[in-house]
Structure prediction request, 399 residues.
Amino acid sequence: MDRRFAAVGLLGGAAGAVVLPADGTDGRTDDTAEAALARGELGSLPESWRFLETLARAEFPGAEAGPGNLALLRGEVPALMERMREARDAGDRDLAALLGAAAYRLGGDLPLPSADAASDPRVRAWILATAAHERAAEGDLEGAARGLGEAAAEVSALSPGAAGRYVGEWASLPIEDPGGVARLALELDRRAEALAGLGFEELRGELLMSRGGLLMELGGSRPAVLQEAVQCFQKATQALPRKTHPVPYAMCHLNVAVAYLSMPMGRQAARLRAAIAVQSLREALEIFDPDAHGGMWEAATLNLANALQHLPSSHVGDNLVEAVSLYEGILARRPTPGPERARVLANLGNALAHLGDHRTARPHLEEARGIFERLGDGAAVEGIDGVLEEMTAAATEAG
Prediction:
């Protein structure tokens, strides 16, 4: 196997087409150097391959990457096409095909080479993935998913990191067909397991997060499926620890909470799940910032407030007071009338009503009712009317 292509597909975007120097293994055998790279052990690579560490940190390498790779990373299409022609004239089919696909991906005026033009599986896979991205851009999502699956299968045994990368790209596609979602969830599980114990922990964590999200889509309120999603997110927090990956770590905790809160309530186990959900949401909110992570902060805050309002506890009053404060924090950042504000207003009014503060609750509930009525949401209006009627009855009874 040509060691020049050992890194193909390990990095995202055009960087996935970097070519390694053919004579740069520091006297080590090809198998030893390539095996280290296949395991993701970037720190133990030959010196002339160590620029991959820089790329993996999303930093731009220096001259050690070589002029060809630097032209690729800078998006210099004419230079790539010139190198492609030189490789083709020299009979280097694999290199010519890879450079042609890279130039095509970067907008070069040339047809995408066929995967059949290359003999090396890693080059073939990268061309298949490039074709898949083109199909996705044209709206052929089914064809794109199929192509990325084929790319992963092409290098499954040879380069588990590249296979995982292609399946991760597959997971980024919007897939609505339940059968397609189920197939992708299975493939994500296979690829994440294949990366266990290797040096691709960040990629493994991303695959686990994607699988957890798909299982939540498939699970509805089925505890067994949602529990499997929770396990994915919990494993992902180990691969993406708080110290080095704070936002993905917080997203995992948010998703753990959402999964637990989506399960049917009422049993002892459900009360334990709700308590774990609250703990996970608090962990997420230690990281999410309302300005930097507005949508995620709001989702975590709203879920925490809702959970506190319904959490079985000996401190119901304290929980309701905290929920009110959380709802008010969201409303302060969402002044525009709309369904999201209306739902928060309704929840705030409901919490205040449970605290017995009917005077403060009523205007919030009436504002929410007005928004829902304008939106034609009859069920929401009916729900609020029920709370208002209970408040009126309680006031009448109190005399």
DSSP finds 18 helices and no strands in the chain. The chain has a mean pLDDT of 92. Residues 1-174 form one domain. The first helix runs from residue 30 to 38.
